[in-house]
Amino acid sequence: MKLKIPSWVGTAIGLLSMGMMPALGAEQIKFSYSLLEFSLPVADLKTYAQEGKISSQLASYKKYLKPEDIAQLRQVLTEKQKLSPVAVSQFLYSEIGELMLKSAGELIQTDSRQNGFYAIRAALILAAADPEGLTLLNTMRYFPSQSIRINSQELFALMNKLSTLNKETNQALSVIEQQSNTEISTEPPVDISKLPELYNKSGSFSWEKRAIPFVDTNRKSLTGSIETRVIQTDIYLPQSQTTAPVIVISHGLGSDRESFAYLAENLASYGFAVVVPQHPGSDSLQMEALLTGKSQQVFADTELIDRPLDVTFVLNQLEQRSTSDPWLQGKINVQQVGVIGQSFGGYTALVLAGARININQLHKDCKSESDLVNVSLLLQCRALALGKNSPNYEQIQQNLSNLDLRDRRVQAVIALNPITSSILGQAGMSRIEIPVVIAGGASDTITPALLEQVQAFSWLTTKDKYLGVGDKGTHTDLIGGVSSVILPSSNRFSGFSGGDPELGRIHLQAFSTAFMKVYLAHQTQYRPFLSTSYVKNSNRDEPVKVYFVRSLPAGFPQGLVRKK
User: Fold this and answer.
1) Do residue 44 and residue 185 come from a single domain?
2) Which of 117, 136, 152, 197 has its CA 20 to 30 A from that of 349?
């Protein structure tokens, strides 16, 4: 069913376009502390943003901010997001959008101290319709209350949580670095000069790319009904005389097959057959459908199940074609499979490796409001909505706990910025028995590294496991081409390698090649590339610091991680 845009939105947009709508926005930002109340005129912020002039009232707050914060404030106020009012409205009327608004509304309230849910939504939509575009300054101008009141109690609580998480993350990185030094002291020395060059260098194989739609006409839903699912898939086939191991790449929420084309091409040049399925229901087309009014969902809840089933179905189809299709016949080994996934795709990779959905953990962690510290819980907690419209909801939820989505053809996985903490938890992660890489970024605000990657790594019981954390890495750095639709392209998301995401992608290409060479192709000469000493040495002269280990001290980070 198409989501209906409220009629007032269309009226407001029309008035705005004719210049007839009066300025009904907030005039003051109010902040209470104990018995004192402070206020700042929005007009002063506008003058500073447009002319660089600091009023006497704004100057009184200047002493509390760092010089770089003052300089950045002007950019933050006027930075324009290229989103249409219809797209903004569609997202904010979705279930996930409303959860985010509810939490934000506890912090940003109306003048009468009411939750700012409706006011924020109206302001964002109207600001997006303004000729100047969606900016923070415009959003304040259209906030339908005389004042924007900041809930100091909620603000301090949020700041305390963020500060605590940042402190804990830094402490974790320190422990990881110490562990790294310990591992290096026990490793055989690595002579880098005698190793082949993997960094920023393609392999020797030429390859051919083809797009093939795989149609699953027998996909069984949670309620038992049969559905059809079309999985558009890119295949990169190396020109080799021997059968090639297969690597599947699973994109994140709101992305598509092009997100990791750079990685697929590089892996194919090293002799791997790379398969990149596009997951309908959680890809860029689904996001486009939401933003244009053709869908009410950011993603279909069933994607938590359908994504790993997509990979298994595609592998089944490839297994059949490898004996009948001249292009594939004798060229691929579908019993020798690796999976690389990012974000939602990282979850997909881990489930295919043997992890299971942890319903008990979800019930403990998922509350009615969203967590502004760990935004990924919005996605993870959707598992509790699976089967909610069925009279057999409780049975469906119980079945999820016992659902085994592992594909035993998968022999190794790399999970980049994966979601793990609640949807898999310790019980789910500990089931994995194959080699695993978990990687994250210390500046990831979507899937915080400590909560979603470091903790998950500590839960692994498999022998061969690797953890890498970039000190400046964010959530979207490793995505090539156009960024994920759900996260607008911005400098805020390009922190990896000191603002050089390309460097992070070069590291990913090299390490994933070596990892898959060792665990899929069984070419042990690549093992030195996976050593702690090699990773540290290869990163020594670069602006980013990569923390890399194969194990963690006993009991860490359980005693460090913030209690939910």
Assistant:
1) no
2) 197
Tell whether 114 and 182 lie within a shared domain.
Answer: no
pTM over 0.70: yes
Whether 406 and 536 map to the same domain: the answer is yes
The percentage of the chain sitting over the pLDDT mark of 70, rounded to a whole number, equals: 90
Residues spanned by the domain of 319: 173-480+492-549
Peptide bond into 188 cis (omega under 30): no
Q: Is the pLDDT of residue 487 over 70?
A: no
The predicted structure's pLDDT at residue 91? 87
Please list, residue by residue across 389-401, b when 16 or more beta carbons sit within 10 angstroms of its beta carbon and e when fewer do: eeeebeebbeebe
Q: What is the pLDDT of residue 297?
A: 87
On the question of pLDDT at 402 being above 70, the answer is yes
Q: Give the residue from 150, 184, 199 where a domain finishes.
A: 150
Residues 431 and 520 in one domain: yes
Chain-centre distance for alpha carbon 201? 27
d(CA 275, CA 372): 35
What pLDDT band is residue 38 in, cutting at 50, 70 and 90?
A: confident
Q: 372 and 315, same structural domain?
A: yes
What pLDDT digit, counting tens, does each position of 86-141 carry?
A: 888 888 988 888 888 998 898 899 988 899 999 999 999 999 998 888 998 889 98
| Domains in the chain, number | 2
Residue 490 pLDDT level (bands cut at 50, 70, 90): very low
Instruction: Among 86, 116, 150, give the residue marking a domain's end.
Output: 150
Burial annotation 8-43 (CB, 10 A radius, 16+ → b, else e): ebeebbeebeeeebeeebbbbbbbbeeeeeeebebe
Has residue 257 been placed in a domain?
Answer: yes
Question: Taking 80 as the threshold, does the pLDDT of residue 238 lie above it?
Answer: yes
Distances, alpha carbon 117 to alpha carbons 40, 45, 448, in Å: 22, 23, 25
Query: Do the domain assignments include residue 564?
Result: no
Q: Indicate which CATH number applies to the domain containing 388.
A: 3.40.50.1820
- 269-321 pLDDT tens trace: 999 999 999 999 999 999 888 888 888 889 988 999 999 999 999 999 999 99
Average pLDDT over every residue of 246-254: 96
Q: Is 166 part of any domain?
A: no
Encoded amino acid at 541, one letter: D
* Contact in structure between 515 and 530 (CB atoms under 8 Å): yes
78 domain residue, yes or no: yes
The C-alpha atoms of residue 318 and residue 308 are separated, in whole angstroms, by 15
Measure the CA–CA gap between 152 and 107, rounded to whole angstroms.
Answer: 8
Please indicate, yes or no, whether residues 134 and 178 belong to a single structural domain of this protein: no
Please provide the distance, in angstroms rounded to a whole number, between the alpha carbons at the two ends of the chain: 36
187 and 131 in a single domain? The answer is: no
- How do beta strands 28-33 and 244-250 pair? unpaired
- Measured distance CA(51)–CA(137) in Å, rounded: 14
Q: How far apart are CA 476 and CA 474, in angstroms?
A: 6
Query: Which of 48-57, 198-207, 484-493, 519-528 tops mean pLDDT?
Result: 519-528
Give the pair of three-digit tokens for residue 201.
């260098």
